[in-house]
Amino acid sequence: MQFFGGSEISPSPPAPTASGNNAHMMYVFNRNGVCLLYREWNRPLHTLNAQQDHKLMFGLLFSLKSLTAKMDPTNADKGNLGVPQLPGQGCSFHSFRTNTYKLSFMEIPSGIKIILVAHPRTGDLRESLKYIYNLYVEYVVKNPLYTPGTPIKCELFNTTLDQYVRGLG
Amino acid sequence: MAAIYSLYIINKSGGLIFYKDYGSAGRMDTNDSLRLASLWHSMHAISQQLSPISGCSGIELLEADTFDLHCFQSLTGTKFFAVSEPGTQHMDNLLKHIYELYTDYVLKNPFYEMEMPIRCELFEINLSQAVQKDRVALLGR
């Protein structure tokens, strides 16, 4: 998978692809499964408590990545199912859609996973996820008071993110 | 009708009852296909739990770098999912057509036991006809 060739530090936000509805929620996980960020803008239904929800989401994505790598029809040489894949190794999925939501997923080579759950008729959100990753780099990673591996508590990141996601709708 | 790489049919408990590969480099042996089918069944169920809105019926389309996976779930819980090239159109029509073939040649077969692997020759013949119609697009192997 070809990765971020861009040389710009902060590219301008891509044109919004979804019309009408805001995103429902967003997760950011690190490579160990720690939920660094969970933002919720519109979630009428809560099936599980927060901890279980995060674990279930991470587990689902881990298994789906494993399934995608194994199911790749263009690659004859694949490892066994369940073998942990390095970020970027093997085929990975970038989104899945159900009748009530569309989940867009992006994994960075460092293992950070960004997940955005939106309306099912949302277009391809890969460019938006790249922009959100740039926001993460600018406001979180470059923040000297932030310890990597801990939940994100950067106010500036949250407000910029909210503004951007509102702009997607 | 669209061209597909492979087709899986799983029963309501998640067991694989039919697997056919239509010429991908990633053809799988029996054990792997069984494991993948069960894994998909579980993922399909978990995706319903994580929905922000009530009334979710599970994953219908999974988009990956090199393929798309389309899934159709019948009202009885039998799932038909197919691996196709990215961006293939009208896959839901193909899957519904396959479901019709399943009801005609498998369910109406008096010797077929429910939830068991499908061994109905007429089903396989008609399925091949339905899938082969647009195979020109899948050349290059």
From TrEMBL, chain A:
Pfam families: Sybindin (PF04099). GO terms for biological process: endoplasmic reticulum to Golgi vesicle-mediated transport. It is found in: Endoplasmic reticulum; Golgi apparatus, cis-Golgi network. Keywords: Endoplasmic reticulum, ER-Golgi transport, Golgi apparatus, Transport. It comes from the Eukaryota. The keyword Secreted does not apply. Transmembrane segments: none annotated. InterPro entries: Longin-like_dom_sf, TRAPPC. GO terms for cellular component: endoplasmic reticulum; Golgi apparatus; TRAPP complex. Part of the multisubunit transport protein particle (TRAPP) complex. Belongs to the TRAPP small subunits family. BET5 subfamily. This is Trafficking protein particle complex subunit. It comes from Actinidia chinensis var. chinensis (Chinese soft-hair kiwi).
From TrEMBL, chain B:
The keyword Lipid metabolism does not apply. The keyword Endoplasmic reticulum applies. One of its GO terms (biological process) is endoplasmic reticulum to Golgi vesicle-mediated transport. Keywords: Endoplasmic reticulum, ER-Golgi transport, Golgi apparatus, Transport. Transmembrane segments: none annotated. SUPFAM superfamilies: SNARE-like (SSF64356). It is found in: Endoplasmic reticulum; Golgi apparatus, cis-Golgi network; Golgi apparatus. GO terms for cellular component: endoplasmic reticulum; Golgi apparatus; TRAPP complex. InterPro entries: Longin-like_dom_sf (IPR011012), TRAPPC (IPR007233). It holds the Pfam family Sybindin. Part of the multisubunit transport protein particle (TRAPP) complex. Belongs to the TRAPP small subunits family. TRAPPC4 subfamily. This is Trafficking protein particle complex subunit. It comes from Actinidia chinensis var. chinensis (Chinese soft-hair kiwi). The lineage of its organism: Eukaryota, Viridiplantae, Streptophyta, Embryophyta, Tracheophyta.
